[in-house]
User: Fold this.
Amino acid sequence: MATITINGDAYTLPEGEKLNAIQAAKLCGVEIPYYCWHPALSVVANCRMCEIEVGAKDPATGEIKMVPKLVPGCQTLAKDGVVIVTDSAKVQEHQRMIMEYLLLNHPLDCPVCDQAGECGLQDYSYHFGQATHRFVEERTVNPRKDVSDAIQLNQDRCIMCTRCVRFTREITHTGELHVMNRGNHAEIDVFPGVPVDNPLAGNVVDLCPVGALLDKDFLHTQRVWFLSKHESICTRCATGCNVSAEENRGSLWRFKPRHNPHVNDYWICDEGRASYKEANNPALLASMYVKKAGTPEPVAVDQAVAATERGLKDVVARGGAVAGVLSPFLTVEEAYLMARYLKSLSPQAVLALGPVPVSGGDQTFAPDKTTGRTGDTSFVVPRPFTIRGEKCPNRIGVSEVLAHFEGEVIGWESLLARVQKGEFAALYVASDALDPAFDEVAAGAIRPRVGFLVVQDTHATPLAQVADVVLAGATFAEKAGSYVNADRRLQYAEAALPPRDGSLPDLDLFAILLARGAGPVRSREVLAEVAEAIPAFGVARGGVVPPFGVVIATTPREGADAGGAAVGGPAVAESGSRFSDPWTTVWRDHGGRKRI
Amino acid sequence: MSDFEPILTRNWNVPDGDTLKVYESRGGYQASRKALTTMDPDAVVGVVKDSELRGRGGAGFPCGLKWTFLPKDRKETLLCVNGDESEPATFNNRLLMEKDPHQFIEGILIACYATRASTAYVYLRFEYIKAYRILERAVAEARAAGHLGKNIYGSGFNLEIWLHRGAGAYICGEETGLIESLEGKRGWPRIKPPFPAIEGAFRKPTVVNNIETLACVPHILERGAAWFKSIGTPKSYGPKLYCVSGHVNKQVCVELPLGVTARELIDVHAGGVWKGRKAKAAVPGGISMGLLSAAELDVKLDFEDIRKTGCLGLGTAAVTVLDDQTSIVDYLYNTSRFFAHESCGQCTPCREGTSWMYKTMKRIKSGGGRLEDLDILQNMSNNLGIMPGTTICGLADGAAWPFKNALAKFRPEIEEYIRTHQDPSRRITPLQAAIASGVSADVAVRHSLTVLGSAPAPAALHSADGGNRP
Ligand SMILES: Cc1cc2nc3c(=O)[nH]c(=O)nc-3n(C[C@H](O)[C@H](O)[C@H](O)COP(=O)(O)O)c2cc1C
Ligand code: SF4
Ligand code: SF4
Ligand code: SF4
Ligand code: FES
Assistant:
């Protein structure tokens, strides 16, 4: 067990991890400012913001010997007996000096800078810098440029921390970014014709501590302090990256990655990053529809729900068979309530998994300790990042629910074959229109074969256009609930937006159909029921999902999903806190104060 | 010192001294043969350690000791020879390579045998094309004669030497900048630890040595550590190539025992200060090392005594003389321009500090100086470099030292310059001063802080893209 001394107080560090002084101090509630250090990147110690006084305590005599010069905290191993001082006059004077230096040639155009409000320069100026400087010379102004179609570089704001360069070398191994020119004229740049357009490129914007690298999609759209951050999960592939869905005035404006060492580490892919836009799509269903005299007519929510219930009950009463299609975009809770509803109507109801979109294979970025790295790598724990070919968030979770109710997982293709044979008098498809499977061909094949068709969706798909009842459900942003990723990790996503006018979140729709009683249904209560009912979800007892998620048990069963054992890098402790750079951390309420 | 017998330069004036034939005829490659065929590598390290040979590249680190830092269980070792020689006024490495390449190759061979390195990279300053050609030929000769290649002298030891030309950056002489550059990357020095001996080029244990350091090695092997220690001054043993340049009658590179004084170099070997003038000051060992005043010219130029004058160290032992008509302001202007240009740009204090110092000197020189600028320069130089712990490499110390020494030794002269060289058009405007002290531009203007007509417009504070490149 390591005991270290910070500013005169002794602290005991947890066993296991190799920490630098910045990390150790943070665990002990002491902040050491930094820019260039990042836990996933090798230590280069070039910004010099993190300098502290370091010494060692002789275990026998208790005598403390300090190193006479300042030492970067990012480079200092927090080992037993280390003594660090972060608040001496010497350290503070140094911090003021670095802040003065960093701003010499900085435009300070915060009023038009997207980074304002989550800027490392602003925050540290306030906490560690000063309002004046001694520089009266002409400034060096390095040019602005594009480094890809999606990313702009305002070089005049760059502090040369090289986080972005190290990311493209050490994590993606694509090396598009580099430094050119020397000294004061050093610039981050790309080689001609080689833009930063790897599938993880957008992360360089997140890594940039200042407003130098900018996402053109977000450029000048919002002031970040107006954004409410919601802890969400990206639904664009089976990895289930942890994201912050950032909302203002009823729209999403961006996704930012949230750290999860078991899933996405610090990153998200560009496709996922752009997927927030679907939540703002003007073509989303804005009403429920019931077919009257052959044409769908917009109706109020309660009428659509009543029509659904009436239609299904009629079929069951006449002895007709009912089938339900549960899309792999549904949350675990939604799948559970839908299954329960259909089984309560008719124990013989057939439940099947909706189409599972797949596009290409998995793409893994596997950083190691050596490739592309130059600095000190001893603190780095390399973890791979995989973009899955399976483009939906919850195939495993929905399958577990289906297996529980059905004893097997019936796939979309086999159900479709049975539909075409005319086996079902009623079909209830709950989906999220991202899959082109519900196209004209499917509509033409299904419609003539079922008497009563309910489609619950977010878009007016060709299948929805021919349905008897269209229920307008929620986008990923409008629903709360949990998903099971490709590594069988159950993760919880908050809702980021209220339901659109004319729609109702899927979970509420099922709850109403189930007549669960007054008041809104809570996903957590439903998950608690799931945990009781289905052994695989037992880990979510009480509906509680830990911050980094939890791996669900494997149901012993032949076929599809057995053996989905966790893959990935070295084991990580399940506890531990989510890393975020201090300048990005804002309290969630509007006008929130920084936590520094 | 007339009885000093040249050692490193002994072949310089011999006809065809750069050929293998002549080198061998004068006893060349005997030391390497002795080492490889009769000695254990560790014994070679032992001899070099006993000789207390200190690195000639600038830092003066004991060479044998450095070799012992290599991990005991290493699988592969690399030797990088530092031939980037870019310290202004330093040219001894160039002469060593051009005039006696085989002495240097023999040094590499022994060093590699001692450290068990079977690959040596010679990193050559880009501008040294002549030395490159000579070395290319010499390496081919040595290989053909069996001094390089496989199973040298039947000892089972293999060695290949690769010549690599830099691309014209001072910073690639810093050992980890050199390693990065050799790996094909930008020459940005690395933080230490890990030191190159543990994790150097291509992440393998690496020794970096200067050319002159290695040139000493064959002689130590041949004549023994005690002989080597009989030359020089305590803690600074052996011969040294001193370069003398600047305002002297004869720019020279002379070999002398360590510990000669600057005055002797100037008066005896360089023919005195030119034009019959007196020396005002002298740079002791490359501009990174600071400045000696005229009164300090009798100090011994070795690794120890030089520090008593407040200079950074012996450096490359390249003395540059400033005559009494030379302004210290010009000296500082030139020095700061060099470091602002050569700073690699990664450490905040060096990247920003060196160019700030240069811009300040430019303004002072052109007539816009303020006395308070000197306090700012003093404060910056006190906090710049690996000594105060604020940068990755020693370039920043080298940028700071000229200011530290000049301000300590010549401040009255610089103040006098500022007082007597005032050009109103070069002065900073009250607006600039106001903005620096945190008053916003419009407030400054409202409070009628006059903006001088001839002064740069406020826009100049923030000139167009890249408009002020040097
Ligand atoms: C900015 C800077 C430039 C340097 N340039 C050179 C150089 O050109 N040649 C050299 O031999 N050493 C140079 N050095 C010193 C090297 O870092 C290193 O100490 C030396 O090559 C070690 O060899 P030695 O122990 O044989 O002296 C430089 C150091 C710094 C900080
Ligand atoms: S990077 Fe930060 S300090 Fe610079 S303009 Fe943007 S918000 Fe302001
Ligand atoms: S662009 Fe941003 S991340 Fe890249 S070096 Fe500059 S400040 Fe750092
Ligand atoms: S001190 Fe200067 S030259 Fe050396 S690494 Fe830092 S920025 Fe580069
Ligand atoms: S964070 Fe340590 S030097 Fe940049």
